[in-house]
Amino acid sequence: MSRTATIERKTKETDIRLILELDGRGESRIETPVPFMDHMLTHVAKHGFFDLTVQASGDVEIDAHHTVEDLGICMGEAFRKALGDKARIRRFGRGTMPMHEALASVILDFSGRPFLVFNVDLPKAKVGDFDTELVEEFFVAFCNHSGANVHVNLAYGDNLHHIIEAVFKAFGRALDEATGFDPRIEGVMSTKGKLE
């Protein structure tokens, strides 16, 4: 069975079409008005070994907030939809990634109960034209719409680009592990018998 999802979200602020193939090869085609997010989502797909197509427009003449938040919403909805009843998936995933001097880890649980712990002390600054505070906004939106419990931790790092890139690469690795199948699992990985 193909684990895919197509999500379309159109508001007065953004217009997004996202296609996710969980059992892909890490290929992506991402075009948004926020080039830094294109770069980060490309890393997520590559290190998560899933295929991702994103076509987005947004009111970036105001700022990138609405677009980045709605990308998180669409990514979250896509994972929720593609995972279906979550039968036989590992459910838990973790990834730790270095990027030059930075080291970040992401641990997540597709429990059906959204929660974000974000232990990354990013100053209110910019990487190019990108507001660093939008990284947390993306993860808040993803958690709320995927039903995932996500813990993002920075061990250390100085360069903001390196820090954020390490986070997104670790996120991809954690997604790959959590969404993968384990032949030992019958039904869902929960003593409750359901994940919601």
How would you portray this structure in words?
With 196 residues, this protein is of the alpha+beta class. The protein has a single domain, classed as Imidazole glycerol phosphate dehydratase, domain 1 (Ribosomal Protein S5, domain 2, 2-Layer Sandwich), CATH 3.30.230. Helices cover 34% and strands 31% of the residues. It has four helices and ten strands, in the order βββαβαβββββαβα. It has helices at residues 35-48, 65-83, 134-146, 160-179; strands at 4-10, 14-21, 28-31, 51-58, 92-99, 102-109, 115-119, 126-127, 130-131, 149-156. Strands 1-2-4-3 form a four-stranded mixed β-sheet, with helices on one face. A four-stranded mixed β-sheet has the order 5-6-10-7. The protein has a two-stranded antiparallel sheet with strand order 8-9. A hairpin with a 2-residue loop joins strand 8 and strand 9 (130-131). Helix 1 packs parallel to helix 4 (160-179) and helix 2 packs parallel to helix 3 (134-146). The longest helix is centred in the last third of the chain and has 20 residues, at 160-179.
What is this structure's SSE topology?
Layout: E1 4-10, E2 14-21, E3 28-31, H1 35-48, E4 51-58, H2 65-83, E5 92-99, E6 102-109, E7 115-119, E8 126-127, E9 130-131, H3 134-146, E10 149-156, H4 160-179
Parallel strand pairs: 3-4, 7-10
Antiparallel strand pairs: 1-2, 2-4, 5-6, 6-10, 8-9
Helix pairs in contact: 1-4, 2-3
